[in-house]
């Protein structure tokens, strides 16, 4: 395709070439009417000449699918148009790198960054799944990360409405589209897809994020496809022993070959991930977090495996909604077309049962191991590195994702430890002020005929302060961020006529320790007593 730099398509002036895909070339462009930068995908004219209107319809379908999704973790589509025979889509310009490039250049992210990435993608898939859209090409290349750590899912070029009866003219059952490394078994087999197919592809992507490689590899696309159909993925914990077992279990459940044994919705995945993120921010060991949805799925896998053992394998050619396999025609050669057939589920049920039970056996063995302090240290083969996007942020936003990963194997903390430690600090600060007052107070005099009754001082006009779940700090309902701003606001709120004042601090259980200490230090500097209260969780 000829270089289109400086060409004007409608209200978009193409500035420079950003990249190319199988269907389109992508340009950075200026939207002249709004004076903003956008990304413009220009469909390759040769595709229309070779495929008729099918590729054009799919190209337009991408715009229609994504335009209906307004979500912070999905690349926003603005408009679709045609100019001088060139069909284009104008969409949000994300100034960052795709996740595949980051993994290749920086290696495996730390646990906090992994949780951040995975949860944001799950949130995007939750939105697309609830809209009835199957992306069908979830992979690291289609996940964009900005310099500030924002995560965006892009490229709905292969998307389809799984309940749209009119979609068959473009993508129908029996057609296999997508990237082989990340395709679900039903996608490889040309079956009708639903959002659970995206969950499988997302599971493969998570596998790669956490250990640096995909579960399956091969010399050809068909060799990889066979493994998606018939081969259990290597245990993720074996690929990266530093990972918490709970995260490994979650990823393997997403990659179950039988759809009914996976997470059924991305909303379920996001719910479990939210619990893990909350535990990580509070310093809790992730393997202590209870995930009822994951436990139910593991139990279903075990039950399915037991049931499969009782059944006799059906004769060849029997259809079943279970495992899949590929067969080469008898007269097929090196360039022959592969015929995809459906076969029995027995082996796949046993495979999934093995994945679930292996974690239980491993946990049982770990209880018999020597204490952590006596274990020999081994150098792990997995390279860990923090994603550049979180390193470049000037200020810590309190999310905890830019800190060093904790030694999860040696950490056994709970949120109550964090809260107790904070209360102890506040108690010590309060006690120091009381002690200072007693030392500065003149000794009371008394005689035999009289006695002096000393009334306990009560703080006047207390100052209110709150730290919410997003680590936002408010003094008298006004937001403050830095230590200087907090000190200045507390001094402004003090009553010069009051003999004593206290700071009534309300903290959310999800707030982080450093924000709480920041407020306590500011209160100490201006001489306020601190009275803390933990907000009730709704």
Task: Walk me through this protein's architecture.
The chain is α+β, with helices and mostly antiparallel strands. It has 3 domains: 85 residues, Phosphorylase Kinase, domain 1; 247 residues, Orthogonal Bundle (Transferase(Phosphotransferase), domain 1); 104 residues, no CATH class. The protein has 16 helices and 18 strands. The strands form 5 sheets. The chain has a 6-stranded antiparallel β-sheet, covered by helices on one side. Strands 16-15-14-17-18 form a 5-stranded mixed β-sheet. A hairpin with a 3-residue loop joins β2 and β3. α4 runs antiparallel to α6, α6 packs antiparallel against α9 and α14 runs parallel beside α16. About 20% of the residues have low confidence.
Largest sheet: 6 strands, antiparallel
Number of domains: 3
What is the helix tally?
A: 16
CA-to-CA gap between the ends?
57 Å
Rounded mean pLDDT score:
74
> So, the CATH homologous superfamily of the largest domain?
Transferase(Phosphotransferase) domain 1
Secondary structure class reads alpha+beta
Strand order of the largest sheet: 1-2-3-4-6-5
CATH class of the largest domain: Mainly Alpha
Beta-strand share of residues:
15-25%
The CATH architecture of the largest domain is Orthogonal Bundle
Helix content: 25-40%
CATH-assigned fold name of the largest domain: Transferase(Phosphotransferase), domain 1
Rounded to the nearest angstrom, the radius of gyration is 30 Å
Name the poorly predicted regions.
161-177, 315-349, 366-370, 388-417, 441-458
Q: Identify the overall geometry.
A: flat
How many strands? 18
